[in-house]
Amino acid sequence: MEDVFGNFDLVLRAFWLTIQLFLISAVLSTVFGTVLAAMRVGPVAVLRTAAGIYVTVVRNTPLLMVFVFVFVAAPRIDINFDFLTKGVIALTVYTSTFVCEAIRSGVNSVPLGQAEAARSIGLTFAGSMREIVLPQAFRATVPPLASVLIALLKDTSVAAAFGLLEAVARMRYFTNNNADDRMWIFLVFAAGYVILVELLSFGAWRLERRWRVATR
Amino acid sequence: MSASVLYDSPGPKTVARHRVYSIVAVLALIAVIALVVIRLQQQGQFAYDLWEPFITPVYVEALLKGLLETIKMAATSVVFAVMFGVLFGSAKLSERGWIRWPAWLVVEFFRAVPVLLLMVFFFLAYGVGADGIGSYWCVVFALTLYNGAVLAEIFRAGILALPAGQAEAAYAIGMRKSQVMNIILLPQAVKIMLPALISQCVVTLKDTSLGFYILAPGLTAVGKAIYTEFQNQLQTAIVVSAMYVTVNLLLTALATWVQKRYVGEKALSTAAVAAAGGGMATGENTGSGGMF
Asked: Over 60: is that where the pLDDT of B283 sits?
C-alpha cells in the first residue's frame, strides 16, 4: 500500500489521462453524434441510409475491435497519430453512434400531438422545431445521453489494452509490483471510477431536475 | 415522431433542392470511398496473400472455434448474470432495509466500475499461476458481476412497471408475499424484460472481446494470432468485426421478434426498460428513474 500512496501522483496522473480521454471524446462524440442524428432524420435519403449503416455496423462492433482498427490496422496503411489522439478517435467513432441513438430517442419521445398542434396554429417547420419540438427533445435527451457518457467514461479503460497508461493500466502496474495488496489497490482504483461516475450522474440528475417541467 | 407532420409535402422546388442535396451527398460518399480504396490499393492491402488465410480451411476453422468460445463465454456469463440479477433485483425491492441497502450498494458498485478493471483484478488476483482459475473464468466472472448488476436494475424496473393493481389484487385474494412475486409479478415482468435481456446479450458478447487484455481465448485472441503470423492486421480486423456484427445483428433480430411476438403493445409503457439494455453502449440503465 505504501507504494500506491507513496506514488499517489501516478494514480492521479492515470486518472487525469482517463478524464482527458473522456472529456475530449465526449465533446467530439456529442458533436458527431448530433450530426449523425440529423442525417438520420433529415430529408435526404442517401444520407439517411449512410448514417443508418454506419450506426448499425459500429454499434454492433465491439469497442475493442474499433481500437484494433485504429491502433493496429490503421498504422499498416500509414495512418498514425499519437496515442491520445488514437484513443480519442476510437472512442469517438464508437460513442457517437450511441449519442445518435440517444438524441433520436429524445426527439421521438416528444408526443406527436405537440408537433401537430404547432403546425395547426400555423407555425412553420423551423418555428415548430425551434419553439415546440427541440426544447422538449433536449430535456428528454438528458437521461439517455448521461448514460452514454457514463458508458464512455468506463469505456476509456479499453485504451489500457493499447498502451495508454490510464487508470486500469496503472492498476495493473501497481498490482504487478505489490501482489499482496491487490485487493486494496483494486478498491482504490474502483473508488476513483465510482467517484467520477457519481459526479457525472449527479450532474445529469441536477440538469434533469432543473429542466423538468410539470408533466401533464 | 413522424417527420411528415413537421412540414407539408414538398413542392416541386423543394423536391429539386432535395435532389441536389442527394447528388452532392452521393458524390461526397463516393469520394470518401474512393479515397479509402485508393489508399488501400497504394498500400497493397488488396494483395491475395493478405486475404488468403480467410479462405484457408484451417484458419476459417480456427476463427469459428474462436467464435464458439466467445459465444460460450457470453452465454455462461448471461446465465450467471440472470441469477445474480433476479437475486439482487428482488433484494433491492425488499421491504427490509438490511437486505435492500447492501444489495443497492453491490449493484451500484458493479455498475460504476469498468468491466475491464474487474477483469484485470480477477486475472491478477485469482487467474494467473498454477492454481489460478484461468483467464476464461476471469472474463466470465467479471461479465457476470457487471451484467448481473445491470440486469438487477432491469428486473427491478420490470417489476415496478407492472400495474400496481396486479399485486394488490393478489394480496386481496390472500396470497403471501412470495406467492405474489412468484405467481403474479415474476411471469409478467420476465415477459416485459425479455427484449432488454436479449439486448444485454449483445452487450455481453461485445464485452467478451475485452478478454484480449488478459489473454483470454475467443475470437479476438484467434484474430491476434492470425495477424501476428500473416501481418494482415487490417484484413483480420475486418473479418473478425464482421463476425461479431453478424452474430449481434442476429441477436438483435431475435430481440425484435420476441418483442413483437410476446410483448407487443405493452412494450410502449415500458419502453424505458427496453431502452435500459437495448439502447445503451455498455448497458447503463436509464429506465428506473435516474441513475442513483
From this structure: no
Residue A143 is placed in which grid cell?
A: 437521461
Q: Does position B22 have pLDDT exceeding 50, yes or no?
A: yes
- Provide φ and ψ at A42, rounded to 5°: -70, 175
Judge: B6–A129 Cβ closer than 8 Å, yes or no: yes
Which strand (E) or helix (H) includes residue B237? Answer: helix B233-258
Name residues 8-37 of chain A within 8 A of B (Cβ). Answer: none
Distance separating alpha carbons of residues A89 and A152, to the nearest angstrom = 13
One DSSP character per residue, B88-125 reads HHHHHT-S-HHHHHHHHHHHHHHHHS-HHHHHHHHIII
Q: Considering only residues 80 to 119 of chain A, which have any Cβ-Cβ distance to chain B shorter than 8 Å?
A: 94-95, 98, 101-102, 105, 107-108, 110-112, 115-116, 119
Task: Please give the pLDDT value at position B5.
Answer: 65
User: Which residues, numbered 62 to 81 in chain A, qualify as contacts with chain B under a Cβ-Cβ cut-off of 8 Å?
Assistant: 62-65, 68-69, 72-74, 76-78
Residue B264, pLDDT > 80, answer no
- Rounded to whole angstroms, the Cα distance separating A83 from B72 reads 33
Residue B234, chain A, CB below 8 Å: the answer is: yes
Residue count of chain A, please give it.
216
What are the pLDDT digits (tens) for B215-260? 888 899 999 999 888 888 899 999 999 999 999 999 989 888 888 8
Strand, helix or coil for residue A60: coil
Contact residues, chain A, for B207 at CB < 8 Å: 62
pTM of the model: 0.85
ipTM over 0.90: no
| Residue pLDDT, tens place only, B93-119 | 888 889 999 999 999 999 999 999 999
CB contact under 8 A, A60 and B213: no
Closest CA to B211 of B229, B201, B224, B227: B224
Could you say which of B112, B240, B282 has the minimum Cβ distance to residue A193? B112
- Our measurement of the distance from residue B78's CA atom to the centroid of its chain's CA atoms, rounded to an integer in Å, reads 10
Q: Does the pLDDT at position B53 exceed 60? A: yes
Of A177-181, B87-91, B288-292, least confident by mean pLDDT is B288-292
Question: Which of chain A's residues have a Cβ under 8 Å away from the Cβ of B209?
Answer: 62-65
Cα B154 to chain centroid, rounded: 13
DSSP H helical segments within A7-81, as ranges? 8-41, 45-59, 63-68
Chain A (169-208) residues lying within 8 Å, Cβ to Cβ, of chain B: 171-172, 175-176, 179, 182-183, 186, 189-190, 193-194, 197-198, 201-202, 204-205, 208
Using a CB–CB cutoff of 8 Å, tell me whether A144 touches chain B. yes
